[in-house]
Amino acid sequence: MIDRRTMLKGSAGLAAAGMLGIPSFSRAERSDELNILCWEGYNTDEVLDPFRAMHPGAKVRAESGTSDPDMINKLRAGETKVWDLINVNQPWAQNQLYPEGLIKPLDKARFEPFFETLLPEFRGPYPLALDKSGKQLIGIVQRFGPFSFVVNTGKISRAMAEDQGYKLFLDPGMKERYGVLTYDNWNIIHMCMVADLNPFEALNDPQFAKFDTAAKAIFGGAKLLTDDLVAMNTALINGEIDAYFTGGTYTASPARYDGQSQVRGITPKSGPAGGKGGVVWVEVTSAVNNPDPSPLASDFLAYVQGPEASKKVAFTEGTYNPVAQMGSKDVLDLFDKDELDAIQWDSLNEEMARSADYQIVASYDRLSDIYNAARRAR
Amino acid sequence: MERIEERQGLLSALPVLILLGAIFLAPLLVVAGFAFMPPKVFHLAHLPSFENFRIFFDQGYHAPLLRSLGMAGAATVLLFVLCYPLAYGMAKIFGRFSLAITLAVVATLFVSENIRLFGWVLTLMKGGMLPGHLEAWTGLEMDGLLYNLPIIVLGLTYAYFPFMLFPLVQGISMVPDDLRLAASDLGASRLRIFLEIDLPLAMPGIVVGSLLTFVLAAGAMAESKLLGGQAVIVMADEIETAFTYGQNWPLGSALALILILIVGGLAILALSKIDLDGIMGRRS
């Protein structure tokens, strides 16, 4: 549909093209369309509708993926022509998407003012939102969360779980008392931690053997495996299991917000990743290197960092998560007590301090083979 | 004259053949092509390699394949045993009541499979409808009934019930009653009538039903994920993992190709043994 605004824009464009002698068949920008590929939350009407109201006539569409690799597969399969923004966890943009030309840099000057609104750990700016040289801004950060494991604090105390860390799952008393949430890329990281290995360093053969032992022990003792966090929380609440490997605020928050505050994400006090035992994911939203880009992409990244939109992104349907923009009082004030409790705001600072960044796992290919073989042999 | 007619037939079929080629065959060819690419590449422009098939044997992928085929086989046998008496009733005894059963079974297909399986999860989980009630009535603590291998087979049996039932009804209705009566008059026992008349004459329906359920169950993943808690890892799961977390499209393609070849081979073998025209009602 052509409304007055696009009509005026179009005629202004035509006039300008005529004056400059630009052939009028040159490709126009897709100013009436924005396609976002994202984790669930950004695709809700709550988040999108205010932006749609700001851009009447524009078709704003968002589709959620079920895993980072799933979404990245789409770009690799040639869908850079389709999408304008991609929202995935932090290691991918700097290490794969940008080097492979699937995303492009953002206008740093436009987004620098937003850094002030972020929590201190993201203000720097956040290193993984930059390219490897540190010069280009390749994404903006918003949702994040510590991710290690989850316990029912009615059965296992928080203090004990934090002290024991991943060794908890090797306790013979825990056999058949825990589940494995099959977010495979996370489990590989945390099974390294079980084996006292730093997942982000290249490993050698004896270390692979230790990982193999740990993977077999974790899979061998698990009561259930599922990639469905609701099913896992249900099993935890109804007493089928007492803990699950792996999980964090992202997976525990829906149950906590539902009043089940005994479901709690745990960050171990120490571990082998530079002394840290927890891992934190941070979503980085980047501009896809679309050959026919939409100018709305960058507008959306600015819009979504505003207080109202930030709160909505943190608390849409599905899971509830802290957002980096909570460094601003305007954003923080929008959260009530129950909401803060759902995302474990009380311990977020200390959990972040005990967590290493989710990075590319140096020996992922080999570890993935061992991991899958252990799972297969279950 | 006949040759022109033949050509006309081919020409009229051409648009459909092109459409089928593009939307059905082309993706399969891409999968087949990727299966022979070196691991972890994302384009078909590489020298062919058999590496993925070596990985299949070296890394124990035969285990999930055998599990998938085994569970599919078990579900098929169970479904045959469960559906045969019902199908016999629907074809020969129930009369107009068969329509009610047909509608009831078809109605389940209107609800997505995942949602129906979640219904089972709520029924069978610890404190769920079944163990919860038993616990309340007996006072004994009941564990959940989920997360084991038999429950996966039960899920497969439940999900593919209609796919066995309806071909069986069709097959059994092809058995002439006169023949059964004649055999009985000549002194054949019930078992003998079943083995020598019912089974052979209903065979097209049995083969089609078994094939449908086996092929679908061999590629099924939801039952193992939702009900089984992945107590065992099935082949479809391994294929998904290779394509997603593994970022290894060639390995995923090779695993898919192996499954397609085995299941397709079985299907062709089975279909070559029966008269499909018969069951389609086109026998002249």
Please give a structural write-up.
The complex is a heterodimer of chains A (378) and B (284). With 378 residues, chain A is α/β, with parallel strands linked by helices. Chain A has two domains: 29-143 and 282-341, Periplasmic binding protein-like II (D-Maltodextrin-Binding Protein, domain 2, 3-Layer(aba) Sandwich); 145-279 and 356-376, D-Maltodextrin-Binding Protein, domain 2. Helices cover 39% and strands 17% of the residues of chain A. In chain A, strands 1, 2, 3, 4, 5, 6, 7, 8, 9, 10 and 11 form an eleven-stranded mixed sheet that branches. In chain A, helix 7 (184-194) packs across helix 8, helix 8 (205-221) runs parallel beside helix 16 and helix 9 packs across helix 10 (249-257). Chain A is globular, with a radius of gyration of 22 Å. By secondary structure, chain B is mainly alpha-helical. Chain B has one domain (58-279): MetI-like (MetI-like fold, Orthogonal Bundle), CATH 1.10.3720. Helix content of chain B is 75%, strand content 0%. Chain B contains 14 helices and no strands. The mean pLDDT of chain B is 92. Classes of the chains: A alpha/beta (378), B mainly alpha (284).
